[in-house]
Write a structure and sequence with these properties.
- This protein is α+β, with helices and mostly antiparallel strands.
- Helix content is 35%, strand content 35%.
- The chain has 6 helices and 7 strands; from the N terminus they run ααββββαββααβα.
- A 7-stranded antiparallel β-sheet has the order 2-1-5-6-7-4-3, sandwiched between helices.
- β1 and β2 (35-41) form a beta hairpin.
- The longest helix is centred in the last third of the chain and has 15 residues, at 150-164.
- It is globular, with a radius of gyration of 19 Å.
- The two termini are 34 Å apart.
Length: 165
């Protein structure tokens, strides 16, 4: 997929709404060859999805050996809006708490006092984290208004051909 196509899809209003959400589902292949799909907080910086995890997270070994990932960001209403993203995970070990981690957890409902306590707990627990950075190499927005899953698009094309035959 060409970069201009990725940019066009990610720039659509539905995509921007989805990229402002809190959670994505990160799919990757584990060391034993089986698939994994984990919910994880994320932030979008305009060109990359950034997720943060502990330095001892089991997924890191898998991502180091097989960095290809898929992400799903979606809604829970009908009709659903779904943003599918593929890319390669780059791992960036950092000292302390990445600013993105504090940002991506900022939308949870907390009082200012709870926020101070939460951040103090985080800073006391982690001496560092790993940023998982994914630059999209393929994207698809499914909004059930203008875009559909490819299999449904194919069925609609086949139905139209039958009706015109």
């Amino acid at each position: 997929m060409e970069q201009h196509e990725i940019n066009e899809i990610l720039g659509r209003p539905h995509s921007q709404e989805l990229l402002a959400r809190d959670l994505t589902r990160l799919a990757y292949v584990a060391g034993d060859g089986t698939p994994r799909n984990v919910p994880i907080a994320f932030t979008w910086n305009g060109s990359e999805i950034v997720m943060c995890t502990t330095k001892n997270a089991p997924k890191l070994r898998s991502l180091r050996s097989r960095p290809e990932v898929a992400l799903t960001i979606d809604t829970e209403v009908h009709p659903p809006k779904i943003l599918l993203i593929r890319g390669r995970a780059e791992l960036d070990v950092v000292d302390g708490i990445p600013e993105e981690y504090l940002q991506m957890n900022g939308s949870y409902e907390m009082t200012p006092e709870q926020r101070v306590e939460w951040e103090a707990e985080v800073r006391s627990l982690y001496d560092g984290m790993v940023r998982i950075v994914v630059t999209p190499t393929w994207v698809k927005l499914i909004d059930f208004e203008n875009t559909l899953p490819s299999a449904v698009e194919e069925l609609m094309r086949q139905r139209a051909e039958r009706e015109h035959a």
